[in-house]
Write a structure and sequence with these properties.
- It is a single chain.
- By secondary structure, this protein is α/β, with parallel strands linked by helices.
- It has one domain (about 5-250): UDP-N-acetylmuramoyl-L-alanine:D-glutamate ligase (3-Layer(aba) Sandwich).
- The protein has helices at about 20-30, 60-70, 85-95, 125-130, 140-150, 155-165, 215-225, 230-250, and strands at about 5-10, 30-45, 50-55, 75-80, 100-105, 135, 175, 185-190, 195-205.
- A 9-stranded mixed beta sheet has the order 3-2-1-4-5-6-7-8-9, with helices on both faces.
- Bound molecules: adenosine-5'-diphosphate (ADP) and pyridoxal-5'-phosphate (PLP).
- The site of pyridoxal-5'-phosphate has 17 residues, from strand 1 and helix 7.
- Adenosine-5'-diphosphate (ADP) binds next to strand 8, helix 7 and helix 8.
- It comes from Nocardiopsis sinuspersici.
Length: about 270
């Protein structure tokens, strides 16, 4: 156990999502964070917060991975937005060079607010190259449908079925996040450890999609694993932390605020 965690993910300048949110979540949970940037996402406030996506050159990503893994004794890594098949190749190659106790994958395909048609063309490369390396995967509703090849996910039973199908692709632990996408008063997720499915439920705070919720959720799981926790407990901590963060964000109405409990300016 090192109390250190590494994240390979995209940058999102407002601080709500991406690697900025990940590092804040690590810090908040007492874990020293290191990060490698795969791509830059910028939101355009003058154009309905449209998204611009710029990938970092694969050789630059490879250099960053080499630097971080040579400099520190690391055994837990979180993967966020990778962004392109070339990036996935280079990250998979970098990860295969050393053993990892945990590889936590948030299989980001699009940002909230983007149309599904804008999905980065990465699901097949993620499935082939990264899912077999992942010990924990945290797909949201759209990602779960895509990876599991299901037309719809409407019930808790569907969440369980998606988790089972994704588990068969390689990851040892699967958390399918229903979030605000399933009807009803609760934000329901399902955690499947290969044998048992556990339903995680907490009252929804509003029904808007909150930017950065999924990043923070997977980052919190990663931090708890870095500290030596088991996956089930790490998922419980993450669920509670994200809910608290959303609660603060919603009540302060901060646009794109991080869902970590460190609110902007504090
Ligand atoms: N409005 C909400 N109220 C309470 N919990 C929420 C809400 N929205 C999302 N969550 C929870 O936050 C976590 C991240 O989920 P989600 O937002 O669906 O991920 P993503 O950002 O990957 O789309 C999950 O545990 C989900 O159930
Ligand atoms: C760089 C980056 N990573 C990940 C995400 C996904 O964030 P979320 O936690 O809202 O799913 C976004 C969304 O804006 C992003 O810009």
């Amino acid at each position: 156990m090192t109390n250190r965690a590494y994240v390979i993910a995209g940058s999102e300048a407002t601080g709500g999502a991406g690697i900025q949110a990940d590092l804040k979540a690590f810090q908040e949970l007492g874990v020293y964070g290191m990060g490698t940037i795969t791509c830059i996402v910028s939101f355009d406030p003058k154009n309905d917060w449209g998204h611009r996506f710029v990938p970092i050159a694969p050789d630059v990503i490879a250099d960053q991975i080499e630097a971080a893994t040579s400099c520190h004794d690391l055994d837990v890594v979180k993967l966020g937005m990778l962004g392109t098949p070339d990036t996935i190749d280079v990250v998979a190659e970098g990860l295969r060079r050393q053993p990892w106790r945990h590889v936590v994958l948030d299989p980001v395909l699009i940002c909230k607010g983007q149309e599904p048609g804008a999905a980065l063309d990465t699901d097949k490369a993620l499935t082939a190259q990264i899912l077999p390396l992942a010990t924990v995967i945290t797909p949201n509703h759209f990602e779960a449908r895509t990876l599991a090849g299901m037309e719809s996910i409407e019930t808790v039973d569907d969440l369980v079925e998606a988790a089972r199908r994704i588990h068969a692709l390689g990851p040892r632990h699967v958390v399918v996040k229903g979030g605000v996408e399933l009807p009803g008063p609760d934000a329901v997720d399902v955690y499947f450890d290969g044998e048992e499915a556990t339903v995680l439920s907490a009252p929804k705070i509003g029904d808007a999609r909150v930017s950065g919720a999924g990043c923070t959720f997977a980052a919190a799981i990663t931090a708890e694993l870095a500290k030596g926790g088991d996956v089930g407990r790490a998922v419980d901590v993450a669920k509670a932390m994200v809910r608290e963060g959303i609660d603060q964000r919603v009540t302060t109405h901060a646009p794109f605020a991080s869902v970590t409990t460190a609110t902007p300016g504090s």
